[in-house]
Amino acid sequence: MATYMNDEVFIKKGFLISTDKSLLNVDLIYNYLNDDSYWAQGIRRDVLEKGIANSMCFGVYQQDVQAGFARVVTDNATFGYLCDVFILPDFRQKGLSKWLVQTIVKHPDLQGLRRWSLATADAHGLYSQFGFVQVARPEVWMEIHTPYIKPQ
């Protein structure tokens, strides 16, 4: 069942946030992540599709046009990793990214998580509004980081 999160201000402007994956424009998402993002350039289409299939996804729409996207990798019980968050350039400066993050952190299926995480190079101000802070004890965190390599 799809969940629709709305805010009166955005409804009046014709915007909607939905977790209905059938509404996602995967071509648009792939093109943005592969060509325009700094974090997912070189991602293979099949990898993105698998990620979408196994994540809670949030699409931002104005009428039938997708304006943005985000996904949460989660077990819906203890942990959520917020990633692939973007609003397309033509829809920026309208407060949509703030509304999107607010909708995600307030989503009923994501309440009570013990830990949220995300990685960002340039949007600390956005996420800090919702309680995200730098990792308090980085010495206890470890990672394996294998960035996508774009074929030459």
Write the layout of secondary structure elements.
Blueprint: E1 4-5, H1 8-12, E2 15-18, H2 26-36, H3 45-53, E3 56-62, E4 65-74, E5 79-87, H4 96-105, E6 115-118, H5 124-128
Parallel strand pairs: 5-6
Antiparallel strand pairs: 1-2, 2-3, 3-4, 4-5
Organism: Mucilaginibacter lappiensis
Pfam family, one: Acetyltransf_1
InterPro entries: Acetyltransferase_Butenolide, Acyl_CoA_acyltransferase, GNAT_dom
Radius of gyration: 15 Å
Coarse shape: globular
Q: What is the CATH superfamily classification? A: Gcn5-related N-acetyltransferase (GNAT)
Derived from helix and strand composition plus strand pairing, the structural class reads alpha+beta
Low-pLDDT runs of 5+ residues are: none
Q: What top-tier CATH class fits best?
A: Alpha Beta
Order of H and E elements: EHEHHEEEHEH
How many structurally independent domains?
1
Structure description:
The longest helix has 11 residues, at 26-36. The protein has 152 residues and is an alpha+beta fold. The mean pLDDT is 91. The protein has a single domain, classed as Gcn5-related N-acetyltransferase (GNAT) (Aminopeptidase). The protein contains five helices and six strands; from the N terminus they run βαβααβββαβα. The protein is globular. It has a six-stranded mixed sheet, sandwiched between helices. This is GNAT superfamily N-acetyltransferase. InterPro entries: Acetyltransferase_Butenolide, Acyl_CoA_acyltransferase, GNAT_dom. It comes from Mucilaginibacter lappiensis.
